[in-house]
Every structure is written in structure tokens, then in C-alpha cells.
Amino acid sequence: MTVLGFLMTEIEHDEQINASPTQASALGSAVFVGMWLGLTGFGMLADVKGRRTSYLVSMVIVLVFGLASSFSPSYAVLVFFRMIVGIGVGGAGVAITLFSEFLPAEQRGAWSIYIEAFWTVGTLMGAGIAWCVFFLASPF
Fold first, then answer.
1. Is pLDDT at 139 greater than 70 in this prediction?
2. Exposed end of the chain (fewer CB within 10 Å): N or C?
3. What is the count of structural domains for the chain?
């Protein structure tokens, strides 16, 4: 999600996509709409097919459509692909539930804090990588 901020700035300057600031903001909204759909859908899928299956399907969606986003030929296709990525990201919460089910009740609180700390580290690393790519590859 942090990388989305870098992406929105970049698509405003991309000659092929040439998005306005309003369109760049709409891209972020599309991702959040996708997450809302994914949270609902993957929660129900987890109840029916199991949390592991639900989580794996969500991560495959993120992988496939995240990669497809990098080859988007137009703004509309990019928004569509990012919305589908948002659906997959919405399913990521299933992993925390799955993880906590395997922990003894007295350790769930501590381990929940640990997993959130690693999430924060991952977010910072993603932002750092995006910053490096943006500034090293950008002609500005």
C-alpha cells in the first residue's frame, strides 16, 4: 500500500499512461474498493474452503495481477489490475487468523504484536525499495 503512493506520482509523469492528478487518486480508490471486496469475499471463502486455501488464492491473485500491472498498456487497464490486486490484498488478513489459531491462547497477544512489527518492517523496506527505484530510474 505504501508503494501505491510512489506509483501514483509516477503515473502522472508516464508518457504512455499520462494520468491527471485526479486519475492518479482514483487509482488509490480502486485499490481500496478492491480490498473491501477482498475482505468480504476471502472471509467467506475461508469459512467455506478453509483459511489456508483462502490465503493461498489471495496471494496468487496479488502475484499475478501485481505483475500484470507492470505491463499495463493504459490507465484503465492499470486501474483494473490494481483493483484486482486490492481484492487479493484483502485476503491477506486471513493469514493472521490462521497463524493465531496455531498458538496457545496465552501467547496470542505477544505474537500478534510481533507479526505487526514485522509488517511494519516490511512496509518500510517496500517504501525504501520504491524510493530507490524512483530516484535512480527517474529522469527528473
1. no
2. C
3. 1
